[in-house]
Design goal:
2 copies of one chain form a homodimer. Chain A is of the alpha/beta class. The first copy, chain A, is built from 7 helices and 5 strands. Chain A has a single domain, classed as Cytidine Deaminase, domain 2. Chains A, B: One of its GO terms (cellular component) is cytoplasm.
């Protein structure tokens, strides 16, 4: 929930605050020994945080629970069409799986912290009418790069369908 | 596992047998009150069934567990690159989320039973080098149509991101 007691329509000046929620999920995953990618689903008409999630590959031995997917799983079923009023915030450019999931549910806005460490399905999103905003967050970019370069980062290729050299 | 005791490379003549495994998953889901879409992941060099799954929207209140995704979740983590040797069998044309997931993991072959009840991301699969085979299975097509037309089928629009009229 927003700390505000009055619900209001989300605007771009709210985006850093929502991204902070996603970032906290990334840090939570890292603290659990997992991949530090987090997500938050925001209901745009009210600015409410409907759901949070983080990559759970390591924690749940999951092939599917990237941050954005975990966020949608934590949400559970919602009324038809509700996701059309939501934005997906994610600390990293969403891979093609997560991008396509946003397209399936007609999520109109995806906000990412950075795409320097990985460039996902941003063009597919745009080709399907989804607005994509990159906050170019230097702090989150550094966090992810440091993790990829660390011993724990050896799981990274598996997460994006690549094979280590 | 294959009923054969000798592992052998899968060929198109094996496809109906693998689809039967996916179909049994669809029937299992229907018997649980769920959406009757099933999937099976086949290791092509050995013809082994590595994993089975079915739509779990109703059963798990899930936005993500379409049949193909559930199959990958039931698999759990596997060595890097193993999925590049596998085929995804599914009783219905895979939606854009499931198609993109196959692309992410570089699954080279998707075999579907039918696309009369729903046409998913088949073109996206082909555009990304994935072979797509449609078995045009009349029995499975009728099963899915009968379900969509039944009272239980009211959940169908939610599963594909649509809104009921």
């Amino acid at each position: 929930m927003s700390s505000s007691t009055v619900e209001k329509k989300a605007t771009p000046e709210d985006y850093p605050r929502f991204m902070q929620t996603a970032y906290e999920q990334a840090l939570k995953s890292r603290s659990e020994g997992g991949i530090p990618i987090g997500a938050a689903l925001i209901h745009l008409p009210t600015s409410r945080v409907l759901s949070r999630g983080h990559n759970n590959r390591v924690q749940l031995s999951s092939n599917v629970r990237h941050g954005e997917m975990d966020c949608l799983e934590n949400l559970g079923r919602v009324p038809e069409g509700l996701l059309r009023e939501c934005a997906m915030f994610t600390t990293l450019s969403p891979c093609i799986m997560c991008s396509a999931t946003c397209i399936l549910y007609k999520i109109p806005l995806v906000v990412l912290a950075e795409n320097q460490n990985f460039l996902g399905g941003e063009q597919l999103l745009r080709d399907n009418g989804v607005e994509v905003v990159n906050l170019n967050d230097e702090n989150i970019t550094k966090m992810m790069k440091d993790w990829i370069d660390s011993p724990q980062g050896s799981v990274w290729n598996e997460d994006i369908g690549e094979v280590s050299k």
